UniProtKB/TrEMBL annotation:
Domain Enolpyruvate transferase as annotated: residue spans: 12-424
Record-linked InterPro entries: Enolpyruvate_Tfrase_dom, Enolpyruvate_Tfrase_sf, EPSP_synthase, EPSP_synthase_CS, RNA3'P_cycl/enolpyr_Trfase_a/b
Active-site residues, record numbering mapped to chain: 316
Keyword Transferase included in the entry's annotation: yes
Native source species: Sporosarcina psychrophila
Record HAMAP family: EPSP_synth (MF_00210)
Assigned protein family: Belongs to the EPSP synthase family.
Binding positions for phosphoenolpyruvate per the UniProt entry: 23, 95, 123, 170, 347, 389
Taxonomic path: Bacteria, Bacillati, Bacillota, Bacilli, Bacillales
Localization in the cell: Cytoplasm
Protein name listed in UniProt: 3-phosphoshikimate 1-carboxyvinyltransferase
Complex formation: Monomer.
C-alpha cells in the first residue's frame, strides 16, 4: 500500500493557492450538458476521480464528451436521444454521481443498472429512491431500494410536493432533475437551505425553476439547451489550506478564483468566529456562481459552536475544522452534524480516532464532536479510510504536529484534489512517497 510521509519545514505559510474546480459544480455541468440538446463547453472542470466517473456514465449513454485537462466539451442529442448502456453504470466512490443520476435516469427512456465501490455500496440511497418512487419511478434493489446496485427503468413521472427530512443537496438535486421530466410542477421544501448549485445551473440552462426561501420548484416538460459553464475553484478544497494558514503563526495565504456561493461559505464564517483574519479581496458574479479572491491570515484561535443552519454550509469541511479546533484556545462544539456518519466513511468516528492518535482531546457525540484545545499534536501514522477528506486532514495535521505524519493510503485524495500534494509541497512541506 502507498504511504506518504509529510514533514513541515517552513516557519510559516505564505503564498497563493489556485485550487481545482468545484466538485459539485463540475458534476452538475456534465449532467446538465448531457440532459440538454447541443453543445456545452465547461471551463475549470475538476479532473478528480468522482467527476470522471460522471463523465464515463454519460459517455455510456451515448453523449459525446471530450476532455482536455480541465476543459470539457459535451455534445448531446438531449435525453430523448440517449442509448441504453450495454454495461452497468459505475459511480465509483461518488455519492453525488449516484444520487443525482438516479433522479436523472428515473425520468429517462432507458433501463440501466447503477453500481458503486465498496464504500458507496454501503451508503443509503432510499433518501432518493423513496421520493422518486412517489413520483412513479421504477428503482429496484435490495433492501427496499436502499443500496446499490439499483436497476432503474426510466418512464414518465408525476410532480410531487416534498418536504425534505434531511438537509441534502444530493436529494434535492435528484428530485429537481426528476422534476424536469415530470408532469406538473415539483415543489421541494428544505428546513435548512443546502448548496444550491443545481437550482442556479438549471436556470442558466433555461429550466423554469423558482426559488422562494427554503422552497424550490421546477416545471416539467421543458427542453434544455447547451450552455457554457465556468467552474470556480472548490472552497471545500481551499478549506484545507485556509485552516493551515489559520493554525500557523505568521501565515497569510491567498486563494484566487475560489467559489463564494453563500450556501458553501460556512468555513469562512467559522474561521472568522474562531479569530482568524478572513478578507474577501475581490468578488465576481460569474454566470450563476459568485467567486473571487480570499486571504486567510493567522491571528490566534479560540473555540466556537458550530450547529444548526451553519452545518449544511460546511458539511464537507468538518473533518479539517475538527483539526483546527485542536489548535484553538477553549472548547469547540460541533452538533447537528449526524450526516457525517453516512459520508464516504463515518467521519465522526474516523476523525476522532485519527486525531486521538496524535494526542488530541476530542470526543465523538451522536451528531458531532467536542474538542478541547489547544493541544500540541504528536507525529504518527494516520489512515485515510479511503476517504479523500480524511487523507487531506491527516496531511494538514502534519503542519502543526511535533514530528512527521505518515499517511496510509493517500491515493483517495485524487477523488477531489488530484494536485493536493503538489500544492502542499509548494506551500509548506517535504513529502516522501513509498510503495
Ligand atoms: C454534495 C452534497 C453534500 C456534500 C457532497 C456533495 C453535492 O452531500 O457532502 O460532498 O454535490 O450535492 P449531501 O447532499 O448528502 O449533504
Amino acid at each position: 500500500m502507498e504511504t506518504k510521509l509529510v514533514a513541515f519545514n517552513k516557519p510559516e505559510l505564505k503564498g497563493n493557492v489556485v485550487v481545482p474546480g468545484d466538485k459539485s459544480i463540475s458534476h452538475r455541468a456534465v449532467m446538465l450538458g448531457s440532459i440538454a440538446e447541443g453543445k456545452t463547453q465547461i471551463t475549470g472542470f475538476l479532473d478528480g476521480e468522482d467527476c470522471l466517473r460522471t463523465i464515463d456514465i454519460f459517455r455510456q449513454l451515448g453523449v459525446s464528451i471530450e476532455r482536455d485537462g480541465t476543459n470539457v466539451t459535451v455534445d448531446s442529442p438531449g435525453m430523448q436521444g440517449w442509448q441504453t448502456p450495454s454495461e452497468e453504470l459505475y459511480a465509483g466512490n461518488s455519492g453525488t454521481t449516484a444520487r443525482l443520476i438516479l433522479g436523472i435516469l428515473a425520468g429517462s427512456t432507458i433501463k440501466s443498472v447503477l453500481t458503486g465501490d465498496e464504500s458507496l455500496s454501503k451508503r443509503p440511497m432510499n433518501r432518493v429512491t423513496l421520493p422518486l418512487s412517489s413520483m412513479g419511478a421504477s428503482v429496484v434493489g435490495e433492501p427496499d431500494g436502499n443500496l446499490l446496485p439499483l436497476t432503474i427503468t426510466g418512464g414518465l413521472l408525476s410532480a410531487i410536493e416534498y418536504d425534505m427530512p434531511v438537509a441534502s443537496a444530493q436529494v434535492k438535486s435528484a428530485i429537481l432533475f426528476a422534476g424536469l421530466n415530470a408532469e406538473g410542477t415539483t415543489v421541494i421544501s428544505e428546513e435548512t437551505v443546502s448548496r444550491d448549485h443545481t437550482e442556479r445551473m438549471l436556470q442558466q440552462f433555461g429550466a423554469e425553476v423558482q426559488v422562494d426561501g427554503t422552497k424550490v420548484s421546477v416545471k416539467g416538460g421543458n427542453v434544455l439547451r447547451g450552455k457554457d459553464v465556468l467552474v470556480p475553484g472548490d472552497i471545500s478544497s481551499a478549506a484545507f489550506f485556509m485552516v493551515a494558514a489559520a493554525m500557523i503563526k505568521g501565515s497569510s495565504v491567498t486563494f484566487t478564483n475560489v467559489g463564494l456561493n453563500p450556501t458553501r461559505t460556512g468555513i469562512l464564517d467559522v474561521l472568522t468566529n474562531m479569530g482568524a483574519c478572513v478578507e474577501i479581496l475581490e468578488e465576481v458574479n460569474g454566470a450563476g456562481e459568485p467567486y473571487g479572491t480570499v486571504k486567510v491570515s493567522y491571528e490566534g484561535l479560540h473555540g466556537t459552536e458550530i450547529s444548526g443552519d451553519l452545518i449544511p454550509r460546511l458539511i464537507d469541511e468538518l473533518p479539517v475544522i475538527a483539526l483546527l479546533a485542536t489548535q484553538a484556545e477553549g472548547t469547540t462544539v460541533i452538533k447537528d452534524a449526524g450526516e457525517l456518519r453516512v459520508k464516504e466513511t463515518d467521519r465522526i468516528a474516523a476523525v476522532t480516532t485519527e486525531l486521538k492518535k496524535l494526542g488530541a482531546n476530542i470526543e465523538a457525540t451522536d451528531d458531532g464532536m467536542i474538542i478541547h484545545g489547544p493541544t500540541e499534536l504528536s507525529g504518527g501514522t494516520l489512515v485515510s479510510y479511503g476517504d479523500h477528506r480524511l487523507g487531506m486532514m491527516a496531511a494538514i495535521a502534519a503542519l502543526v504536529a511535533s514530528a512527521p505524519i505518515q499517511i496510509e493510503d493517500p491515493s483517495c485524495i485524487a477523488i477531489s484534489y488530484p494536485g493536493f500534494f503538489t500544492d502542499l509541497e509548494k506551500l509548506a512541506v517535504s513529502i516522501n512517497t513509498k510503495g
